[in-house]
Amino acid sequence: MSYRSLRPRLPKATALRACGSHVALLLTVLLLTGCGYNQTGSSKNEITSGYHWNSLFREDVQSVAVPIFTNKDYRRGVELRLTEAVIKQIETRAPYKVVPKDRADTVLEGQITQVWAAAITRDYQTNLPREQILNITVDLIWKDLRNGQILMQRKNFSRQVVFYPTLGEGEFIGSQDAVEKFAMDIVQEMQADW
């Protein structure tokens, strides 16, 4: 009589569950023992082994001033909304505190150079736009006020957003959507260089 004949036969579903529980146990053990990751806040001069989970943003900056962006385009109000959206994004997504310029480590200045909208598609009967694109272009400079170093500079940095006037989205709604998405892009540009 063989060993196999003495072993009780399990239904296939039970055998699969048992096999699945062994795999889950093995994965748990592997995850608990680690895979070489090391979450530290150590300085860059310190030599350590493994991977590091450091911030995506600069660790030598604690505060930033964001004066109202200037506007060279004839469309007014975009500069106020963009400045406000950038401040909200910095406070939400970045570790920096937004403070007045006289107390800040750095300053982020922007100048809106161009805002334009164009029709992508038109209604064939009325010739009114069905789908429009709005573009905002900005020159940015982020400067360290402690030593005068330029941390980030972008010329002709732009964002395009599509909006639909036939669905009740006027140019104001399209520009607000562009401003909010553009503010996210600007804060992403403030991340540390790898």
Tell me about this structure:
- The protein is an alpha/beta fold.
- It has two domains: about 5-50; about 65-190, 3-Layer(aba) Sandwich (Rossmann fold).
- About 30% of the residues lie in helices and about 30% in strands.
- Strands 3, 4, 5, 6, 7 and 8 form a six-stranded mixed beta sheet that branches.
- Strand 6 (about 105-120) and strand 7 form a beta hairpin.
Global structural class = alpha/beta
Strand segment tally: 8
Order of helices and strands: HHEEEEHEEEEH
Please give the domain count. 2
- List the total number of helices: 4
CATH homologous superfamily assignment of the largest domain: ABC-type transport auxiliary lipoprotein component
pLDDT below 50 for ≥5 consecutive residues: which ranges?
Answer: 34-45
Just give the CATH class of the largest domain: Alpha Beta
A few lines on this structure:
By secondary structure, the protein is α/β, with parallel strands linked by helices. It has helices at 3-6, 12-33, 78-93, 171-189; strands at residues 37-38, 51-52, 63-65, 70-71, 97-98, 106-122, 129-144, 150-163.
